[in-house]
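agent: user wants the structure for Sulfotransferase from Cynoglossus semilaevis. delegating to structure tool.
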Amino acid sequence: MSATQTYMFYRGYALPTETHSEESLKFAQEFEFGDDDVVAVTYPKSGTVWTQEILPLVLNGGDLTPIQTIPNWDRVPWLEEKRLAVVVDQLPSPRAMVTHFPYHLMPPSFHKSKAKVIYITRNPKDVLVSSYYFHQMAGFLEDPGTFDEFMEKFLAGKVLFGKWTDHVKSWRHTDLGDRIMYITYEEMVQDLPAALRRFSDFLGCNLSEDTIQKISEHCSFKSMKANNMSNFSMIPKQYMDADKSPFLRKGISGDWKNHFSSEQLARFSAVIMKEMEDENFSRPWSL
Ligand code: A3P
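agent: tool returned. relaying tokens verbatim.
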């Protein structure tokens, strides 16, 4: 069996059919959010799988059982993907999910609930690089072409979940008030215990410093790379080929410097800056 590179269209977004279906997207729209639910929201390649490690540990006082026994995609499922319907009844309370949906695609019940949101932003230049390698290793995604070609697709929003700028902006203009916490991938890389304290405070978990340190060790890039429940090693090679590029690839900030020419940097920054010019957007990286 080989992976198919077919896509479906959903409200203007092209999504791979290996992971999404009409049924899964209907399931997401009809999903009943509860007040205790927690959802981590990301533009793809911004640290989604990282939160699938962090959330169960933070929500369960550092209990390692979920991250050692349940694959990441079932432990903290994607709202929009096929697995949610399969595992939804087994999710412990409080339920934790992830989604790549922009704000306007969130289901009606989400808006009526008090579910909490953690929105993670990553430097779009590193998102592009990470996505470029992901498209090479994931057999169900179309070949990215050259880095230059892929950059143009990214800037035009002809990639998973559209333009990075639209996604980030959509989640900055919400009426969620204190239901949403913003954090960056870069802050998490720079000081994971500090980031975990923010997760814990926001989710009302009251974790001790010892527990924060323990969770930090288990969520490190090195630990996750060695965790077969989180490193996608259980996925057959035709779907994800770690020989082409591991899913947990580098886990650093600034790898874009190894990939962008000065022309590409100028072009990329000009487009992103123009699209973000009306936003008062502080970030720990320069565009
Ligand atoms: P790189 O390709 O730059 O290494 P997503 O889960 O949203 O698809 O994001 C994947 C990116 O998050 C990859 O980036 C991956 O290595 C990185 N990542 C996952 N776990 C991480 C961790 N514990 N520490 C740092 N980066 C991590």
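agent: one observation worth passing along. The chain is about 40% helix and 10% strand.
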